[in-house]
Amino acid sequence: MDRQKKAIKEVLQKAGIAIDGKNPWDMQIHDERFYNRVLTDGSIGAGESYMDGWWDADQLEETAYKANLVRIPSLINKNPRLLLFIIQNKFLNVATIKRSYIVGKQHYDVGNELYERMLDHELNYTCGYWKDLGDPLTAWKKKDNLDKAQIAKMDLVCRKLKLKKGMKVFETGCGFGNFARFAAANYGVSVVGCTVSGEQARKARERCKGLPVKIYHKDYRELNLNEKFDRVASIGIMEHITHKNYDNYLKITSDVLKDDGLMLLHTIAGDLSVTAGDPWSDKYIFPNSHPPSLAQIAKASEGKFIIEDVQNFGLYYYTTLMSWMQNFDKSWKYLSKNYPEKYDERFYRMWKFYLLSFAGAFKARTLSLMQVVLSKGKEPIVYEAVR
User: Fold this and answer.
1) Does the predicted TM-score (pTM) go above 0.90?
2) The domain containing residue 265 runs over which residues?
């Protein structure tokens, strides 16, 4: 045990994180089995031991931030289970049509009562646009800023797509219908959207009632769209496509887009090109998912799209996640009291680890948020970017 503890301590020291230290980002160890669990299972061991209450940190987002800054190396022994995970993700298509519904059931169907209290009033479950709302590191603390940031994000997408009244838009992953509802109501367009979440589809149809919006509970590959669209919006779905499907995804969207059309990709992006996600996140939060890199997006675009514009506002995802965490904390007493069969203490710690560890990664900029505007390159134009 002493040797395992020493190994963990030495790695954490490089990130400025102490064991049982006095700083709010230092790790307080409650169970000595933590060390062996992390050495054996890596990120799964770190996440599960946190869920089990074996360790804490007063500012978990700062712990994650410091760890990401120095890219704490893996100390995992040759765990066959984790090696198999890496191999399967690299060589197999883990995001087939059938498997795409797993993340819908496991994550997006976890409960609308949770999302309605954690998210903004329009139920945006993607990064907000916090421009003009103050310091991104503290803007999340101010009431109503999350609503303003998400409205600004939806309007930014509409302006980048240069929407005009009467246009037809295909949204490849519509979530709770927030963008479809906003674009139809404010820009006079019609929208066809789909989602692999039954709960999202139900909520989206309810919220878009009376608007020219069609919502399908289907994977984007299952839709037989016998029409061409003026615009394609891809907001927060590229993370679930995985590297085996990037080419096909952009081929499908290119095929349904008119020659003079535009597509917008709003996606989390990694600073490295990977073929597998984080094992803990894959198991508990986003199964069969991992973020693309800008290089992977560019490679998959070849022969299908011209890249017209790229904007990175990844730090705003830190702000968004901290705002969600604030709302989640405020709502926890209500959720745990009224839905105890769904939201127990282990769920709370799992969700907290998810939100704050991701926040730390965005602050450290190992994760970014990219908005990429694509055209088919068949029009002699100069795309005038907006911000």
Assistant:
1) yes
2) 96-375
